[in-house]
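sry for the spam today, last one i promise. struct tokens for design, 289 residues
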């Protein structure tokens, strides 16, 4: 049996001007739930979806209920999920009017031959699948970040989870409200498989940060490539992929777990809300170093 492992993040946008006690307490509760699921034999794919769904619903992060509107006041959300053993993936971009983007992404993966659906088409598909809708956006959404974004600033927030289960299967899931006050129609790295989310037989990765830079560096898949071709360790590969993104001028972080049950959560921003649980007994919930 493989060594199970779980990691989650609530975004790489924290600042030391705030406290994150509520976010950390909620992530600790989820960590215990996810660890129990994995210890009991639950598939990694179901665990990461469960974790991200709860992070979306919490309203504590810039994703799901905590998302912020775009420049036109519309809530456009992105999400993706990937199954390592099959490399099947599903994603939605610029999704409007649905409560759980990660549920919509899972439906794309399970119910269609496609990987990514966007905009009105994604919303129509999700509604046809019977997924819960947002009837009153102003009442439903409680933006976790309310400060105004400066012109040209890539202010961001994301949630994600990665897991290795007892069978050695890996999976990753990521969800976001995107940049604060973003240009309508803007799509970042989260729904782009390889850039913001990746899972295969070696590693599962979920990224958070300035998506434009993660896209240019193809960060999530680069972690796996470094492990495969350069024979780097999980920690070295994750740090190297993140450093390549940082050299382009971006900031952010990622979480990753390997098929050996290792976990790492590097970041190159002021902080990153994160949590780790491993079969070996590691339990960690932190925002800053």
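last one done:
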């Amino acid at each position: 049996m493989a060594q199970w492992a779980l990691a989650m993040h609530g975004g790489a946008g924290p600042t030391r001007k705030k406290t994150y006690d509520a976010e950390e307490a909620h992530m600790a509760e989820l960590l215990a739930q996810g660890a129990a699921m994995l210890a009991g034999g639950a598939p990694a794919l179901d665990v990461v979806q469960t974790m991200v769904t709860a992070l979306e619903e919490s309203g504590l992060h810039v994703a799901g209920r905590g998302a912020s509107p775009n420049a036109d006041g519309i809530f456009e959300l992105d999400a993706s999920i990937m199954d390592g053993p099959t490399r099947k993936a599903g994603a939605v971009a610029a999704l409007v009017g649905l409560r759980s983007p990660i549920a919509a992404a899972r439906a794309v993966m399970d119910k269609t031959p496609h990987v990514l659906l966007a905009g009105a088409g994604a919303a129509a598909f999700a509604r046809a699948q019977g997924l819960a809708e947002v009837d009153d956006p102003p009442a439903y959404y409680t933006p976790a970040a309310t400060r105004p974004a400066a012109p040209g600033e890539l202010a961001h927030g994301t949630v994600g989870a990665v897991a290795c289960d007892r069978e050695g299967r890996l999976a990753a899931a990521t969800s976001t409200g995107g940049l604060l006050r973003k240009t309508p129609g803007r799509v970042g790295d989260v729904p782009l498989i390889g850039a913001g989310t990746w899972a295969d037989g070696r590693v599962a990765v979920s990224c958070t940060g300035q998506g434009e830079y993660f896209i240019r560096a193809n960060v999530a898949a680069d972690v796996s490539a470094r492990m495969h071709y350069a024979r780097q360790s999980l920690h070295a590969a994750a740090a190297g992929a993140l450093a390549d993104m940082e050299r382009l001028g971006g900031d952010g972080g990622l979480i990753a777990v390997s098929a050996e049950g290792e976990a790492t959560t590097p970041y190159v921003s002021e902080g990153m809300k994160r949590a780790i649980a491993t079969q070996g007994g590691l339990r960690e919930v932190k925002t800053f170093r």
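The helical segments are 21-39, 44-58, 101-111, 119-128, 137-140, 211-217, 219-229, 234-247. ok im logging off now
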